[in-house]
Amino acid sequence: MACEAQQAGVLVSLFLQGVSVSYGSRKVLQQVSLHAHAGQVLGIVGANGCGKTTLLKAIAGHLPCQGQIRFGDQLDVGHAVAYMPQDIQAPVALSVVEVVLLGRLKRLNLRVQAQDLDAVGNVLRRLGVEHLASRAMTELSGGQRQLVFLAQALVAEPALLLLDEPISALDICHQLEVLDLIQTMTRERQLCTVMVLHDLNAAARFADEVALLLDGKAITQGAPSDVLTIDNLAAAFGVRMEAMVSPKGRPVWIPDCKISSA
Question: Using one digit for the tens of pLDDT, what is the confidence trace for 129-144?
Answer without folding.
Answer: 999 999 999 899 989 9
